[in-house]
Amino acid sequence: MNSLLTAKGIETYCPLNKVRKKWSDRVKMVEEPLFKSYVFVHVAESDHTPVRMTNGVLNYVYWNGKPAIIKEREIDTIKKFLNDYENVQAIAAPLAPRQKVRIETGLLMNTEGIVNKILHNKVEVLIESLGYVLVATLDKKNVQPV
Description:
Largest sheet: 6 strands, antiparallel
Helix content: 10-25%
Radius of gyration: 17 Å
Oligomer: single chain
CATH topology: Alpha-Beta Plaits
Strand order of the largest sheet: 7-11-10-9-8-12
Mean pLDDT: 79
Strand content: 35-45%
Low-confidence stretches: none
């Protein structure tokens, strides 16, 4: 479907997660979509119909009654997570009070985000527009409230 949209001149992004898969004779790194059945498109409102008319497209993801609009910084956060970590999980986020934090050291140094919770060494960074949380293992001492 990605290629069908691209052929129409529509900018697309399908986040691919690096996952280790084990078979009986080997272990191999494979790429799987992070958000099953999702492809992000960058279109003007006037271009919504050509996307919907593409084979394989069911509809837009709706958030609060409208097609979800993902901020560029949120796409950048997804790309950074997928570039820096393997086996990233996308978990549907419950609506709850959120805390803004800054990562002090490591690969994501000086990155600010909205964190759902920190448990042991796992940090859950909320991608607000989608209602998903990206989970990566990070030493909690490297995350400070803003």
